[in-house]
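Teaching note: in complex prediction, the entire set of molecules is handled at once rather than each chain in isolation. The prompt given to students was simply: 'Predict the structure of this complex.' The entities are:
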Amino acid sequence: MKILGSWLNDFGSFGSDNEKLAAAMTSLGLAVESITSVGSPIKGVVVARVLRTERHPDAAKVHRVYVDAGDSLELHVWCGAFNIKSGDLVPLATLGTQMPDGRIITARGILGIESHGMLCSSIELGLGADSEGILVLPSTLKLGTDVFKALGISSDVVFDLDVTRNRPDCNGYLGVARDLGAHLGVKVAAPSGDKAKKGPARTLKVEIIDKQRCARFNVTVISGLRVTDSPDWIARRLTNCGMRPINNVVDASNIVMLELNQPAHPYDGDKVTNGFRIRCARDGETIRTLDDQVRQLETSDLLICDGDDTAIGIAGVMGGAKTEISEATTCVALETAWFEASGIARTAARLGLRSEASLRFERGVDPYGIDHAVSRFAAVLRESCPQLVVHAGAADPKEKSLPPKYSLVSLRVAQVNRLLGTKLTAKTITALLAKIGFATKTVTTTSEPVLKIAVPSWRPDCQSEIDLVEEIARHVGYENLGKILPQSTMHGRLSPTQQRRRDLREIVLGLGLNEAMPNPFLAPGDLERSGLDGELAIRLANPLVAEESILRTSLRPGLLKAIAYNLSHRVTDISLFEIGHVYPSGSGELPDEYESLCIVASGESSALAMDWWSQVSSTMNFGAQLDQRNVESGYHPTRSASLRRGKQLLGSCGEIDPLVLAKHGITVPVACLELNLSILLSESPKIATAKPVSRFPSSDFDLAFALNKSEPASSLLKVLRQAAGNELVEISLFDVYRGAGVADTARSLTFRLCLQATDRTLTDAEVTATRQRCIDAANKLGAQLRN
Amino acid sequence: MSDQSSVNPMRQAIEKAQASALLAIKTVSDLPALRSLSADLNKKDSPLNALKTELGKLNSVDDKRTMGQLLNSASIAVSAALDIRTGEFEQSEISARIVREAMDLSELVTNRRRGHSHIVTQATMRLEDVFIGLGFQIAEGPEVETDFNNFEALNMPKSHPARSEFDTMFLEYGEPGSVLLRTHTSPVQIRVMQSWPPPIYAIMPGRVFRRDTPDATHMPVFHQIEGLVIDRGITFAHLAGTIEAFTKAFFGRDFTSRLRPSYFPFTEPSAEFDIRRQDGEWIELGGCGMVHPNVLVSSSIDPEEFSGFAFGFGIDRMAKERHKVEDIREMYTNDLRFVKQF
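The expected output is the structure of the full assembly:
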């Protein structure tokens, strides 16, 4: 909502301390987004009379104008507009005048003939939107005087307010003025209505069919008008408030709408046949609206029809073309109505037609502001139509669904103080609310003071006690309610899962991995390109673009795209990780969403992936078995493993399937580790119990075995661990060898075992026996000891 | 009784042997030579040691004692000289080694680097830590939510006009319009209120989604942090006090905060909160307010017993402004040349 400073002053003496006014509006919740200076007087523009005009044979687009600027001297100017004739008063920018666009008026003319100034259009002077012709001034002005002074224009300012949804009244000057007046102690009154005597009764019949959707519909007949341009001050006000002046009739209705938040629609009185019917549209019905579009209607759209049931407007949204005001109009039927808000909102949204009127109807207008709105419309229109006649006998049906003049809301004084931390009394609250027109009807004090507050009809947003608490807070001033840090009765901390997530993050960062945040939305086919099942994915019902219409079921596609992106920008050695949610479809109320960790590195093999797993699993105490027989799809089938605990899948480790890499245009191998963090981080690992460190020497020995390739090294490790028994303190695979001396079907695996007892030095015999048990056990697995 | 005739030659012999040993030690050229000299001097038949056998030939006990002491101090002097000389050689050898094994550390470049955390994660953790310090716990919830948790329970029934402002992305899952990508982290507030009995002092950081075309300052996927306090006797002043404490803790002591009236369906009274920088400029940060009684009721909390407040703001903007990132989209390209700067 744009508020023009001078216009606001029509509602009360607010003055022109614009900074103070802006601060006051902001502190009331009417956030001032900008303050713009408008209509600043330009020095050197004077009133001049056109003496005569003259064409020049060599200048087709301009003519010569001779003017008198009050000193009886004939000044010559070139002019490109032809709307002026001798006798007209026009604004002359004299030599040396600096125009708002920065140019300075000089005598330089054309065809070698000088120009002693420039005649100005209203837009050049910042006085209106008209750029077509020279501004013709009222004939009463004195020649040679400053144009701005003569017109009574002083510098003005526009406050651009961000009006929140709960303040429908502030979509009009009156609402803003009421709030501001209460805050600043300024008396506020709406601009006066039409004072002329009513003309003879002329009634157009109004029949409201859908009484829930339309609760009041006033039709006043006004005749004796002449459709013309609005006076400048009206055009200027509309322009400065972001509306285009159209003609005096439409402009008057817009002035009323801006002032009083009451949209009013003027129909050409001679084009409306047999009155009005207000009903919902029939299926398939259409209407041509003012903007010359044919609109397809639905049964939930409320229509204004004429007495013959032909649609002539979409209620509260836009009028029809048929009854539009034209230059020939001499009589209007003025509609000022009250429509149910949500119905207007639905229609406006469905048709994509958010007009200034619909915006106000859907937020809420004052059903009891209609009488003044009609009167004010006549008063504004009378400025350009002195012969105007407002006819008596206006139709004004009111239905039961019309909201009451005020609604009663109970307010407990204790509740106000409990929520605001104040010590306000019933008396203070009564006074505060009275300032904004909320009257206190009764005060009961049987157990605690309870006020019955009459909320006026222009504040439909205030329906309950808490709404009144907010009003009190606003008018006490948020800044006056204090700042107290509450003493939390809880202790702040990370949950065990959150702490473990941070630990994991530290480990992963320590491994040199960089955090990525790819888009969780994928394009159709992205999952399949990554070897994943697209059927498990959920589609967005209303995606922004098709490329972002699928919810990810894995972090892999996003990270593979990130690798491809970096490679295409000649960044190599890419190592990335992401901790984020994935959203596979499920069978519950919500999908089977879970948190996942995925790590990738370009140009790296499974060896690095295993290193990651080993580091992460040992420090985080993540337990899982490597299962190379069941490799998840999208992973390299012979160089990857799934990580499982029994049947439960905890993740995967290895390399990305070369086929997947090819589809991403990645030509180097990519190591990958993926873990289900929703499972792994929620586990609380056992706290290690201290074991005494042995004071006796350890015995180390190495065992090298040839093991068939089909048998994983982990099986042999497991067998050796079991066979070595309790004295085994450490076992590690420290060499893998393929080549001469080992069968092609096998490879050599060398383990180092460390034995140590806590209570004695192990004897050679004991060590030898253990070693033999290990060899025997290995043999059973098919591993042959090598020498 | 001293026998000067036999004592004097012996004294001379001792002094001579000591002098010659000390001279040899002094003139030896290197550590190996010193070691072999030391071995020679420690032999039984070295001149000094040989004189020890001569002691027995003296008759007088006094002479034996005198000569023994003389011989002993000679041995100690020789031994001390050996130690000093050894020390000197070792010292010079280490000095030589230090010169010899000099290294240019700037040649020693390692490519092993710690990874870089995303700037949004860094901002989130800093925010979390500030609120943990103020006694808050951290609550989490799913990013795919029900219409109920995202809207209805927050005082926005199906017909509520404010819903249109949330630019919601709905999913093809369940009944049409029933499952969506959360538009704010407020559904986590609902989950917390439904599962934790008050008092509640919690923050909810997380990813949120709006159907917004990306530009330099907006992403359809971004991050938010909200806070929720529900306790007995919580007032609007506590909300303002918490915002102020957070402002000072996170941005610095020179910053201050203000609340100004606004509108949200889930809070009342509602406010926007701004912070003021040292240069006096106010920056709009987020929204807040007293939890609407309807929201408490929908989570089975008695609004007559408990009251509370909630607040929320964007995290991405914090990261963007801290690191002066011009275009927020830059933060999500995952270009390593960007990620590694922070």
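Point out the following to students. DSSP finds eleven helices and ten strands in chain B. Residues 56 and 64 of chain B are 7 Å apart (CA to CA).
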